[in-house]
Amino acid sequence: MSGDTFATPQTQDRDVLLDVRGVQKIYTGHGRTVEAIRDLTFSVGRGELVCIVGPSGAGKTTLLKCIAGLLEPTAGTVTLDGQRVTRPPQSMAVVFQEYGRSLYPWKTVQQNVELPLKQKKLPKARRQELVNEALAAVGLGEVHDAYPWQLSGGMQQRVAIARAVAYQPQVLLMDEPFAAVDAQTRADLEDLIRSLWHKLGVTILFVTHDIEESVYLGQRVLVLSSSPTVVMEDLPIDLPDERSQLETRSGRRFAELRHHVYEQIQLAKHRKGSEPGPDATPDVVAHGNAV
Amino acid sequence: MSIDAPTRRAGTMPARRQSGLPDWSLGLFGLVAFAGVLELLPRTGVISERYFPPFSAMVGALVEAMGTDTFWSATGETLQAWGIGLAIALVAGVGLGLLIGSVPILQRLTASTVEFLRPVPSVALIPLAVLVFGITNIRSTLLLIVYAAFWQVLIQAIYGVQDVDPVARETARSYQLGRWARLRHLVWPTALPYVMTGVRLGAAVALILAVTAGIVGIGQGLGWLIVRAQSGNDVPTIYGIVLFTGLLGVVVNLLARALERRALAWHSSVRADLGG
């Protein structure tokens, strides 16, 4: 694979919605310090669907929490629509990996989805409208009065997605949302995300450790290095916009992209953020897809 | 994908069967056997009938006592003190517990004091109660009951508040839930199972103290009836009223459990989990 097969994205004339600049996060405590993220800089354009992939322990969740305003970065800034993020912004919604803990078991599906809308002080009729629309959009029109724990894992994550959708965010942050569901459900949920993205025009930042998932979902894939973390590569995914689990995944271009990201991840495992980033070496053999 | 039909509640689960009999019938059999032993021991002369009358005599004395107004007014007084005392302990324990539990510095400040005051037996406060409120004042009884039940509720509430799931908390923060909304929709429901345990434990000790107060001469509840029977050398009545207080304890516990099941239908200890 030659270097020019994979173009660098054009960042100059985009309408930037989310800007991450020089973000560093050092955890201190119990007499030791851990540098989870060293220096992350990237931006996400309005309406983009960007995937972040990296080896386990690369600080993906830390990064996402910094962006969500749940963690304060040690250095650097996160800017959303021109406003610096210092606390969770109202135009952002987060979908966590642990749907079972993120949904409140003492509330029904309806109440879970509606709770953030009450905080927005929306009138009751409008809230109900948004709840109905969001649940219908994720294919759960019939379960309003069920409790989350009465549903399967995949359905619970749909409820969490519906809660985020009903909130009408500009940016949807997703932290390995499908890591805990089975393969078939996962494929369905991936397609759900693509279709929601098309339908709502929302900007999505999707963190995953699954290479195939990142390539299948994203318009761009950001490959992170091992901790202390930097962005190793910003890879545009030049697959057709209309994607299908069967066609897209068996295509030649998909295989090339997956292969490339896999190589980068293999490199990332052995490279810390401080070292310069060489091009992918061709002698790294791909065995599988998950990191 | 479809949701399974209405959740089975723990209470309607098929009873575990042993030797072909449902559990409750075995329990009942145990009680009957116990009563039989109590009946036989004095009748066969193994223990003296003077200090340990047969079970039938105890029940007879209780039934006889139940025919008097004094018995029912004493029961009413004991239950009144129990109810008021428990309510005060509950409100104070939950309120302070929520506050202390959600402010880490407050918790560190109070932890040692709580650990010091908690083991002080309520009965050790009897002389103080009598001095402050007098022997016939219901406040004396209430002081004992509140002191005993308060710590049970407080400790549970403090633990409950600290059990809030980090992911649930981050969810609340990212959806802009304010302090009051977090307390109402996240902290309180999380603490509720703990508070319910506190209520159950508190209700039991409150009843003990409500009876104790009468025995030591404060108020005129069931405890006072026991003392009166003692001074009249009426041993069967002593046992009869003791049996009755035991029954009250069972009823209190059953009520607390029913309340718990109702309030915590969503909780993993009560619900039948269907999700993966």
From TrEMBL, chain A:
Span list, region Disordered: 268-291
InterPro entries registered for this protein in UniProt: AAA+_ATPase, ABC_transporter-like_ATP-bd, ABC_transporter-like_CS, ABC_transporter_ATP-bind, P-loop_NTPase
CDD domains tied to this protein: ABC_NrtD_SsuB_transporters
Gene3D superfamilies per record: P-loop containing nucleotide triphosphate hydrolases
Domain ABC transporter: 18-251
Keyword Repeat appears in the UniProt entry: no
Entry keywords, A to Z: ATP-binding, Nucleotide-binding, Transport
MF annotations from Gene Ontology: ATP binding; ATP hydrolysis activity
PANTHER family recorded: ALIPHATIC SULFONATES IMPORT ATP-BINDING PROTEIN SSUB, TAURINE IMPORT ATP-BINDING PROTEIN-RELATED
This protein's name: ABC transporter
Organism field: Planosporangium mesophilum
From TrEMBL, chain B:
Bilayer topology: Multi-pass membrane protein
UniProt xrefs under InterPro entries: MetI-like (IPR000515), MetI-like_sf (IPR035906)
One Pfam family from the record: BPD_transp_1
UniProt KW Cell division keyword: no
GO cellular component terms attached to this protein's record: plasma membrane
Keyword Cell membrane: yes
All copies of domain ABC transmembrane type-1, residue ranges: 75-260
Alphabetical UniProt keywords: Cell membrane, Membrane, Transmembrane, Transmembrane helix, Transport
Transmembrane segments: 21-41, 81-104, 116-136, 142-161, 201-226, 238-256
Recorded superkingdom: Bacteria
Name of the protein: Nitrate ABC transporter permease
Species per Swiss-Prot/TrEMBL record: Planosporangium mesophilum
Gene that this polypeptide is encoded by: ssuC_6
